[in-house]
Amino acid sequence: MSAEEKSMSIIVTKGSLDWAYPPFILATTAAAMGLPVTLFFTFYGLPLLLKDLKLQVTAAGNPAMKMPMMGMHMGLPNLLTAIPGVDAGCSVMMKNLIKKKGVASIEELREMAVEAEVRMIACQMTMDLFEYDKKDMIEGIDIGGAATYIECATQADINLFI
Amino acid sequence: MADHTLDAKGLNCPLPILKARKALKDVPDNGTLEILATDPGSVADFEAFCRQTGNELVEHSENDGIYQFLIKKTA
Fold first, then answer.
1. b vs e for A7-39, b when ≥16 Cβ sit within 10 Å of the residue's Cβ?
2. What domains does chain A contain, in order, with CATH numbers?
């Protein structure tokens, strides 16, 4: 089995700190294993291409989210997750954990993805819809639409939607 | 003695693999790369990495929570 014959594409639809991990981890790892990789950033995944990342976790959207605290795992009652500042607090905790456990930051993984020549496509429609400008995004990305992705997906062995 | 050593201790998935890939670039053909890691998941991951990339996992061992891998650059 030759790695060169395999390739992977991922549709990236979510842009919170936690959901940003799977596409960037898989993309960098697949590239390290010799697979050409394409990431298609659409809807809420698109801001992951902004130069300035302001990533947060959303406790309200993750009812099963628990964090290690005082020797156990603690979650927040759904009602509390709507209080202003809770997401920011959870995000600080998560970023501290990430650092402490030797997990790469999204910025670091994204840089490694660029270095590994992972092809990143920004969805043109999402850019129009949410009024994003290419000049606010990192260098070296492509802009495209559904047909651009489909062409790539027909040639890829692994196509994921995250 | 390996041609290169990569200290990936304290790093979590997928950093040991990503850093190993980079380090392999500086290893001559048929040369060896030694990797030290503390991530228990790196055992299965380096086996898979080597199978997929065609490099040879010459040996791996664990001592006191430190995993040691020796990869021969054959791809």
1. bbbbbbbbbbbbbbbebbbbbbbbbbbbbbbbb
2. 3-49+101-161 (3.40.1260.10)
- Integer Cα distance of B5 and A103 in angstroms: 21
Verdict on whether the full-model pTM lies above 0.80? yes
pLDDT 10s digits, A95-144: 999 999 999 999 999 999 999 999 999 999 999 999 999 999 999 999 99
Q: In this structure, which amino acid lies at residue A98? A: I
The verdict on a CB contact (< 8 Å) between B18 and A102 is no
Q: Which of B11, B14, B20 sits opposite A25 (nearest CB)?
A: B14
Write the CA distances from A156 to A38, A123, A160, integer angstroms. Answer: 9, 19, 10
Separation between Cα atoms, residue A44 and residue A162, nearest integer Å: 11
Q: What's the CA gap between A49 and A114, in Å, rounded?
A: 11
Q: What distance in Å separates the CA atoms of residue A156 and residue A159, rounded to the nearest whole number?
A: 7
Q: Do B12 and A3 touch (CB under 8 A)?
A: no
Catalytic residue ranges of B: 13
Please, what are the domains in chain B?
Answer: 4-72 (3.30.110.40)
